[in-house]
Amino acid sequence: MRLSHLRICNVFVVLLCIGTSLTSCSGPSDSNSGPLERISNHVQEMADDGMEGRETGTAGEAKASAWIDSIFKSQGLTPMGEDGSFQMFSYKPHPPMQMHGHGDSTSIGMALVQEIHGQNVLYALPQNNQRWGVIGAHYDHLGYGDDNSLFRGDPQIHNGADDNASGVAGMLELSNRFSNKNEPQSLLFAAFSGEEKGLWGSNQFCKKPTVSLDSIDYMINFDMIGRLRGDTLAVYGTGTSPRWMELLESCNDEGFVFIPSESGVGPSDHTSFYLEGIPVLHFFTGQHPDYHKPSDTADKINAEGILRIVNFVERLMVRLNSEDEWIFTKTKDQDDESTPSFKVTLGVIPDYLFDGEGMRIDGVSDGRPAANAGMIRGDVVKQIDTTIVTDMMSYMTALSLFEPGIESNVTIERKGKLEQVIVLWD
Ligand SMILES: [Zn+2]
Questions:
Q1: CA of 38 to the centre of ligand 1 (A)
Q2: Domain 4-332 classified CATH 3.40.630.10?
Q3: Ligand 1: distance of its center to the CA of 40 in Å?
Q4: What pTM did the predictor assign?
Q5: What is the pLDDT of residues 242-273, one digit of tens each?
Q6: Long-range contact list for 347-351, CB < 8 A, 24+ apart?
Q7: Rounded to the nearest whole angstrom, what is the distance from the C-alpha of residue 253 to the centroid of ligand 1?
Q8: How many angstroms is it from 3 CA to the middle of ligand 1?
């Protein structure tokens, strides 16, 4: 998943298409093992040091894409890329200062920015019915720690077990199951790359789709589903079709407690599909202190949790595949009037699963306004100057009011007590 403070500004990334290469890898493992073992193995293989953090444009990405390709192939799916199963893209990133000009990243000049090549891995279960459901999960991560890393030490492999070996493992389990069914609807399984860089792979797919976008009924995104705690499951995009909540509840044999969020715009690949008018859902098991750090490792993954989510989504997809009429609705984030755009951020990771009043902080970036003002993980932002913060939307609305270089009074709740801090926006 992408860093939340970049969530709005990188949605409309434009891409071009060029090729890259892949390397060989170990063969598929697993047709005889049970689902839990398979999921565990897949997370471990993807998050292995040998994959070197799977950064887009690196040997680690090539190795991971070849490995995913071999699993899909062993399941008997049909390649659905541009030439075989791969869909290549290339992109020249903006200098970091154009995205968020602060700190030492401004020292990286235009001259050092090189084009990066990446590739999606696309496989399908086509049926005569040419209506498609898309299940996506990004497989790229931060390599040895790119600009999106929240780790401040020497370069280290960022294994990205939750982000997003967990989602890929869930998707591969679903493709395995549906390859043995004869569902009426065509299904496309998409392992996207470039997600961490700015949703590049999913943008590329939506720009040069290998099945017509008009024929896609829904897109389900798994991004960070490896840390299920209890029964709490975040589901984003519930406002992108009027049927979603009813369908989710009616398929909920797992007893999940959903934390729904209506918006189709979020920090992951479903956003690309939502912006094309396709109903989306993003499943997410919540933030944690290991997010975008080398400590996001396979031993911390709740494989049983992934299995429960897979069981649930399988049931949901069977239901969806039998739907005749399907409706898209724009959510409020798509509405220009209510979409806040902002030039400043606190430099925090919001806790998306927090359902109290305010914006709870799940992590702070060193050297950014929140950290500089002494804010810590667990603080809940209640008010910024005169704007009351009740949720993520009002937090973003508040941010839109400020410019770099000015100061604001921020009211936070820490251990049940309200405190005031002064934030200097950068
Ligand atoms: Zn991420």
A1: 23
A2: yes
A3: 20
A4: 0.73
A5: 889 999 999 999 999 999 988 888 889 999 99
A6: 347/5, 347/102, 347/371, 347/426, 348/5, 348/375, 349/3, 349/4, 349/150, 349/287, 349/291, 350/4, 350/287, 350/392, 350/395, 351/286, 351/287
A7: 29
A8: 7
